[in-house]
Fold this sequence. Notes:
Layout: H1 2-32, H2 36-44, E1 64-74, E2 80-90, E3 95-104, E4 112-113, E5 116-117, E6 120-123, H3 128-132, E7 135-136, E8 139-140, E9 146-149, E10 152-155, H4 160-165, H5 180-195, H6 199-202, E11 211-216, H7 233-242, H8 244-249, H9 254-279, H10 285-296
Antiparallel strand pairs: 1-2, 1-11, 2-3, 3-6, 4-5, 7-8, 9-10
Amino acid sequence: MFRFFVFIFGLVINQMKQIIFLLFSIFMQAQSTIPEHNILNALDYSNTDGLYTQFIPLGHPYCYLIDCRLNIFRSDNGEWAIAAEKLGYNPRSGYVELEIYYYGNCLKNLEEYNGSFSNSYIVFPIDIHSYESTTDGEVLKPDAKYWLVRGEKVQLTHNKLTYKNAGIELKEYEPGEINIEEAGRLTIINYHNLFRATDAELYKCIPKSLKKIMVLDTWYHRDYDRSITIPSTDNLKKTYELNKSMMEKNGIDVNQFLNSMKDQNNRSQKMNEENYNINRPSSYETWQLIAKVISQNNPALYKPMFASNTHWKNWPESGSL
Length: 321
């Protein structure tokens, strides 16, 4: 009889262990699940946290787009991050820049400007001396032979047929001239891995506990920008007072100035509303699928129906100013 009770007691203990393990597994799964709407909400409002935060601007008029990539990260305890790479030529800085944009719920080491955080930072994959010795303003020097990219020589060419065969139409403001963005768009074809961000560069603002679960070199994208709204009436009045002599010289009194700013603010708000309704990340397939991938930690869920549009040819407005 004693052995029978010991046997029954052992069965009960074993069942209790199984139940506890099951409950613990359910608890851990619930703890690591990331709601999709949290991810999409973070993306939708990624450009409202200050002057130096923005959603991935592939068509930015200050920078010629050359290439781009998305890196998706996740941990087992509910942390997630997206690092978006945008390689482009910025005539204002004069360099080919790799800018990395960050989104997530665990970001760290973000750059700071004028008291505000920035969700991006810039890497220069081309050796500065090599770059400056082969460029003259916005074009390649006639004798430019190569760029040194992360320690490796990347061959340059002035052969117009090579560019034509690659689908790159040269501007040639001067005969035989090769613009820097044109050279960059050609070299990326054969040397794209050299221009990508390294893991060390990607993890600058991401905890190392997160694993890279998906990488996309192409996707369907919509730029999503928001106009800055006008300051309060009190601040506008102060602005008027600071510029009163100039305003009065041009026949503008304070009420005219305030009404003008009010009209401008209304237009900006209307544009923001339209942009939010049409272009916000949560409004279309790409980011909805990426949110599912992150939420369920399953890259197989990314099965887009939309054709990708992130090739530089689809963004003619990039670098247009």
